[in-house]
Amino acid sequence: MAEFAITDDSLASLKDKVVIITGCSKGIGLSTAQLLLSLGASVVGADLHEPAEGTVSSTQFVFHNANVAKWQDLVGVFKKAMELHDRVDHVFANAGVSPATDYVSGIELDDNGDPKEPTSLVLDVNLKGAINAATLAVHYIRQNPIGGSIVINSSVMGLQRFRAVDYGVSKHGSLGLMRGLHSALTVQNVPVRINAVAPSWTAGGMVVEELFNSLGIYTQPASAVARAVVNLMADESHRGHLIHVDHGVYKEVDEALMLPTYNTLRHKDTADEDESMGRAAELMRGWAEKHEI
């Protein structure tokens, strides 16, 4: 694993940048907004409720009420940033909710005794919200002459088995989002970088520090994760990286660990699947043009 340090100097390039943060009012989102504002960036924050009074006082911060599970709400956030600043430089797709359903013991029955469909709230917010935020980010950031970046808040729960199934699925999906978009953006030469953070237990937001402390479970401060997020925006060498954050220690784990491990599994005669997909898609395009489909 590639462990690295984050210095204050490495974040300085965020001055005067325009950043959108979803889930800006608590925890990691709020701490990231505070750090960016301290660096001289402008932040358009989206959430269902404004940050608590006194937590954000900068005139460079604008709050926009939005439910990230609703496309038009997210469109409104980006349009607000364009209206105010005429550009978007970076987007942090951070909004998330706690586990909401148990697919084993939480199955509910309707009046006929048939199982009810489980709620999709966690998938709608944590995964669909991230997909839509990233899609809009690509559209707007690519209009910048120098491009910009997207950061996805994934989780260590996307790297392991996790009994809160809906939450785990959403975070596995967010990692897939980062990986897939990195490949697509790269092969299409779009000047938008995408990376993700995978924090362990982090105080604030969904994690109640007092409760975890009573169990003897360490929770790192949200500011530790915020530094990783901002570093991914500032350092252009981060491309398709997944930064594991635990006890304030930063390690890149996708290119350094996970992808090389997968490559040891592939048969020597099996072509790279992503490259194969590109070749097949190109062939299909040619076939469709030839047959005027």
**Which architecture per CATH?**
3-Layer(aba) Sandwich
- Global mean pLDDT: 94
Helix-strand pattern, N to C?
EEHEEHEHEHEHHEEHH
N-to-C terminal Cα separation, in Å? 47 Å
Keywords: NADP, Oxidoreductase
InterPro entries: NAD(P)-bd_dom_sf (IPR036291), Sc_DH/Rdtase_CS (IPR020904), SDR_fam (IPR002347)
GO molecular function: oxidoreductase activity
Family: Belongs to the short-chain dehydrogenases/reductases (SDR) family.
Describe the model.
Keywords: NADP, Oxidoreductase. One of its GO terms (molecular function) is oxidoreductase activity. InterPro entries: NAD(P)-bd_dom_sf, Sc_DH/Rdtase_CS, SDR_fam. The chain is α/β, with parallel strands linked by helices and 293 residues long. It has one domain (2-252): Rossmann fold. It is 40% helix and 16% strand. It contains eight helices and nine strands. It has a nine-stranded mixed beta sheet with strand order 1-9-8-7-6-5-2-3-4, sandwiched between helices. α1 (27-38) packs across α6, α2 (71-85) runs parallel beside α3 (121-141) and α3 runs parallel beside α4. The longest helix has 23 residues, at 165-187. It is globular and about 60 Å long.
Distinctive features:
293 residues, alpha/beta, Rossmann fold, nine-stranded mixed β-sheet, 8 helices, 9 strands, globular
